[in-house]
Amino acid sequence: MQFLYILLAGVIVLGPLIAIHEFGHFWVARRCGVKVLTFSIGFGPALWRRIARDGTEYRIAAIPLGGYVRMLDEREGDVPEAMRAQAFNRQSVQKRMAIVAAGPLINLLFAVLLYWILFLQPGHSLRPVIGRILPDSPAAMAGLKVGDELVRIDSRQINDWESANYALIEHIGDSGVLDLAVLPEGASQPQARQLQLQSYMADSSQDPFRALGFVPWMPPMPPVIGKIEAGSPADKAGLAVNDRILRISGETITDWQQIVEQIQRHPDHAMTWDLIREGQPLVLTVTPDLSREISGQPVGRLGVGVIDAPINIPPAYQRERSAAPLEALLLAVDKTGQLIALSLTSLYKMLSGLIGMDALSGPITIVKVAGHSASLGWESLVGFMALLSVSLGVLNLLPIPVLDGGHLLYYAIEAIFRRPLSESVQLLGLRVGVALMGSVMLLAIVNDIRRLF
């Protein structure tokens, strides 16, 4: 049942993104006078099809991992004399470039629309206040303190933990000095701090904050077990609902988040848990299973949940989020621009070896993340769709034959030299592009499978 839920969430996310991409090609082609033969969402056998009065076939196919718009083209078969003016290959190079570019560009515009919707939603977010400093870490050596609020990371203004997360991800693989501005607790003016980076998060084994040596402030939750999954390692170890955890392997426990951290850091590692059950002390040996979270990194999993209790976030740790329509639109454009730059920077760092190729994800991970986002609510799902739409747009604009960007490269060369590249050169480029993209997709799927097991 859970698998079907995740699969459905993946289709809900990927379907509209594919449809809007192909609609971009379709809409501009029609405006340029090109005859569209087929508009397909997905590949393979048709699950649904309809032929419109103008002869265009609309179809939804069985494999929802792509789509295509098939246009009238003399290179693909004989075209009647009366219809040659509607053939794609007969259009000016400017029109052909517009048709090809429309798909990825509409993905980027769609991301702006989705972010605009999100920024219009009023609400509250957590102020980026540091809750804990890890010993002997870059944060500790830089003089960061508990209660410091992040104000700026390099040139990026920080308003909440999401903006801090994106600002830090830009520095993955970097070495050198990271400039921060923080507002210490009780201070009125920000103060500068400098953290030393050394191949920051190159193996993607930590979250961006722990890699620097601090943990965001979170509302305190009592270290009391609220639920136990049947047959889980917690159930097998003898843990019970309402157990209050005092110590884990000698470390004093005062908050539920510490329990989560201990479990995640010790997969397949036996730990001693000191606890109180019905007023009596008890010692148990607990061994979390090896699991893999969405990022694909090995973590421990125990099968316990926190006790249900009201979460009280003091007003001092909250920031009101509200934006007028125009302000929200500007924020959406800025957010999309940041993600475009981040995508290109990450690609460069991956190719140059600053980021490991294990960071590459494929369709399996996309579907898993879609399912996880759906479980968190519609805003998380829409945010993931926007992020994926940016990635899809940027990927398709890369100058690789077989992608839209490769076709744009060919047409740009044609526009400059007043003649198209020879068919042999284009065919060679197509073979190279197919081999390259096939290798990348294979690596992404292998990474996906490794994350599963």
Q: Stretches where pLDDT falls below 50 for ≥5 residues?
A: none
Total helical elements: 12
Shape, principal axes of CA atoms? elongated
User: Strand share of the residues?
Assistant: 15-25%
Query: In total, how many beta strands?
Result: 18
Helices and strands, in order, run as HEEHEEHEEHEEHEEHEEHEEEEEEHHHHH
Average pLDDT score: 86
Could you characterize what this model shows?
- This protein is an alpha+beta fold.
- It contains twelve helices and 18 strands.
- The chain has helices spanning 2-31, 93-120, 138-141, 161-169, 208-212, 233-237, 256-265, 325-351, 363-376, 378-397, 404-417, 423-452; strands at residues 36-51, 57-71, 123-126, 130-133, 149-153, 156-157, 176-183, 191-197, 214-216, 225-228, 244-248, 251-252, 271-277, 280-286, 289-292, 298-301, 304-306, 318-321.
- It has a four-stranded antiparallel sheet. A four-stranded antiparallel sheet has the order 12-11-13-14. A two-stranded antiparallel sheet has the order 1-2.
- Helix 1 (2-31) packs across helix 10 (378-397) and helix 2 (93-120) runs antiparallel to helix 10.
- The longest helix has 30 residues, at 2-31.
- It is elongated.
- The two termini are 20 Å apart.
Summarize the structure.
The protein has 453 residues and is α+β, with helices and mostly antiparallel strands. 43% of the residues lie in helices and 23% in strands. It contains twelve helices and 18 strands.
